[in-house]
Amino acid sequence: MRIYVTDYEGQEHPLDAVEGWSVMQILKEYDFPIKAECGGACACATCHVYVDEDWFKRLPPKNEEEDERLDEAFDLKDTSRLSCQIILDESMDGLKVTLAPNPE
Ligand code: FES
Fold first, then answer.
1. pTM above 0.85, yes or no
2. What are the sequence ranges of the domains in the chain?
């Protein structure tokens, strides 16, 4: 399966992805500049991404924990998600996300 990631320069990258991994893990694997400080524990909001609008509706919804954590994210949008909370399955083949700003 593949996911598509748009970087800070607006360039889209097709990435080979693995079912059962989180989007955050894939981003880390490919050395995208996301901090993901808490390592996927839904405790830091530094793995923030914007999901393509059509895809956003198709993903399993956020739980309360993710919603609360996202409130701490910089430059929140309606399609914001924490990439560590999106666990890939085959229905997400072709998923598109864009890196969100990650202030120091
Ligand atoms: S890695 Fe910390 S909330 Fe996702």
1. yes
2. 2-99
Check pocket membership of 45 for ligand 1, CB cut-off 6 A.
yes
Residue found under tokens 């399966």: 1
Cα of 58 from ligand 1 centre, angstroms: 21
Give the Cα separation of 97 and 81 in Å (integer). Answer: 9
* pLDDT tens track for 34-92: 999 999 999 999 999 999 999 999 999 999 999 999 999 999 999 999 999 999 999 99
Q: Report the CATH superfamily, name and number, of domain 2-99.
A: Beta-grasp domain (3.10.20.30)
Atom of ligand 1 nearest to the CA of 47: 4
Phi, psi of 14 (to 5 degrees): -80, 130
Pocket of ligand 1 contains residue 49 by CB under 6 Å: no
